[in-house]
UniProtKB/TrEMBL annotation:
This is Fructose-1,6-bisphosphatase class 1. Its main location: cytoplasm. Its cofactor is Mg(2+). Substrate binds at D129, G130, S131, S132, N222, Y249, Y267, L268, Y269, K279. Belongs to the FBPase class 1 family. The gene is fbp.
C-alpha cells in the first residue's frame, strides 16, 4: 500500500518557540496532576489585562493619560494616572475571572476582599512598576504573585491567606512594556517568556526555559544614593568598578531585572538612610522576582536572608533587594557579612 510522505506537524507537542501563551498554559497544566484549570484561567485573565494596559502605555502620550493623577498612595508616593488605570484594569480582570478571593495592590491601602469566598487564589500586584519613567517613554512593567489561600474554600478570607512568605507562591511573573511587550512567568516548573504580537493580539513563546547566567558583567544600583550605602554594598560596587563591569540602571525594576536575567548581572536596592528597610516592597515586587530568579538558577537576598523566606508582617513592607546571578549575589552577601564569611571559610 502506497503511503504519503506527509509528516504531521508535531511541534505543538514540544514547547517550541511560536506557541501561543494560551496553548502553552493548557499544555503546562499537565505539570499539575490535580489541576482543575483555575490557575490557568487566572494566568489568562492576567494576560488579558496586560494586553489592555499595553495599549494604554503605548498611547500614554497621545491620550492624555501621562502625568500625575493628583493623589498619593499609602506609601506617600504621588500616583501617576497610569498607576491608577493599570490598577483598575487588573482589579477588573482579577475580580471578573472568579478565581481570586483577595488582592494586595501597591495602589490599594488595604487588602481588596473580592467577597468571592469560592475564589481559591490570592494575588499580590504592582500594577505599574517604574512609574517615574512613564512620561519619558522608558520601559515600565507589571509584577504579580499568586498564592493559594490557606483557609477552606467557601469560608471568609483570613490574614493567613494574605500574609504568606514568598516560598508559598504557586505562580509569579511580570509584564515588561518596552520596545516589545513581554510576559515572563513561572509556576515552579521553570521560567518562560512570551512576546506580544500586537497585530494578532497574542502572546507567543519567544524565550523558553530561561536560565540566568551564573555570573555576569552588569551591575544595577542607583549610585546617587552611594553616600547612604553600608560598607559591604560600597565595597561590592567598588569591586565592580575595579573589574570594569558595566553600570546599567534604568530605574524601572522590571526592566533592570529582565536585562540582568537574560544577560547575567546583579540588581541592588539596599537599605538607605531614607529607606532603612530598602525601597522595594516585599509582597508585590521582591517576592515575584525572587521566585523567578530562583527558578532560573539565580538568587535573591536581602543581604543575609533569602527573600522567599521572609515572613511578611504588613502589606506594604519594604525589603532590601539583591537579586540576579548566583555568584554575584553570594559575593555581595559575603561582603555584607564578613564575620560570618570568616567563621564559615
Ligand atoms: O528612583 P529610585 O530611587 O532609583 O527607585 C527606582 C525604583 O523604584 C521603582 O520605580 C518602584 O516601583 P514603582 O514605580 O512601582 O513604585 C522601581 O521600579 C525602581 O527600580
Ligand atoms: Mg514597583
Ligand atoms: Mg508601581
Amino acid at each position: 500500500m502506497k503511503t504519503s510522505t506527509f509528516q504531521p506537524d508535531q511541534s505543538h507537542l514540544a514547547y517550541s518557540v511560536g506557541i501561543t501563551l494560551d496553548r502553552f498554559i493548557k499544555l503546562k497544566q499537565s505539570d499539575f496532576p490535580f489541576a482543575s484549570g483555575e490557575l490557568s484561567q487566572l494566568l489568562r485573565d492576567i494576560a488579558l489585562a496586560a494586553k489592555i494596559v499595553n495599549r494604554e502605555t503605548n498611547r500614554a502620550g497621545l491620550a492624555n493619560i501621562g502625568g500625575a493623577f493628583g493623589q498619593t498612595n499609602v506609601q506617600g508616593e504621588e500616583q501617576q494616572k497610569l498607576d491608577v488605570i493599570a490598577n483598575i484594569r487588573f482589579m477588573r480582570a482579577l475580580s471578573k475571572g472568579g478565581e481570586v478571593c483577595a488582592i494586595v495592590s501597591e495602589e490599594e491601602d488595604a487588602v481588596v476582599d473580592l467577597q468571592n469566598n469560592s475564589g481559591k487564589y490570592v494575588v499580590a500586584i504592582d500594577p505599574l512598576d517604574g512609574s517615574s519613567n512613564i512620561d519619558v517613554n522608558i520601559s515600565i512593567g507589571t509584577i504579580f504573585s499568586i498564592y493559594r489561600r490557606k483557609s477552606p474554600i467557601g469560608s471568609p478570607i483570613l490574614l493567613e491567606d494574605i500574609m504568606q512568605p514568598g516560598s508559598e507562591q504557586v505562580a509569579a511573573g511580570y509584564v515588561l512594556y518596552g520596545s516589545s511587550t513581554m510576559l515572563v512567568y513561572t509556576t515552579g516548573f521553570g521560567v518562560n517568556g512570551f512576546t506580544y504580537e500586537n497585530s494578532l493580539g497574542e502572546f507567543f513563546l519567544s524565550h523558553p526555559d530561561i536560565q540566568a547566567p551564573k555570573s555576569g558583567t552588569i551591575y544595577s544600583i542607583n549610585e546617587g544614593l552611594q553616600l547612604e550605602w553600608e560598607k559591604g554594598i560600597a565595597d561590592f560596587v567598588q569591586s565592580c568598578k575595579e573589574m570594569k563591569m558595566q553600570s546599567r540602571y534604568i530605574g524601572s525594576l522590571v526592566a533592570d531585572f529582565h536585562r540582568n536575567l537574560l544577560k547575567g548581572g546583579i540588581y541592588l536596592y539596599p537599605s538607605t538612610l531614607k529607606n532603612p528597610s530598602g525601597k522595594l516592597r516585599l509582597m508585590y515586587e521582591a517576592n515575584a522576582l525572587a521566585f523567578i530568579i530562583e527558578q532560573a538558577g539565580g538568587k535573591a537576598s536581602e543581604g543575609k536572608q533569602r527573600i522567599l523566606d521572609i515572613q511578611p508582617k504588613n502589606l506594604h513592607q519594604r525589603t532590601p533587594l539583591i537579586i540576579g546571578s548566583v555568584e554575584l549575589v553570594e559575593q555581595v552577601e559575603r561582603m555584607m557579612n564578613p564575620m560570618e564569611t570568616l567563621v564559615t571559610s
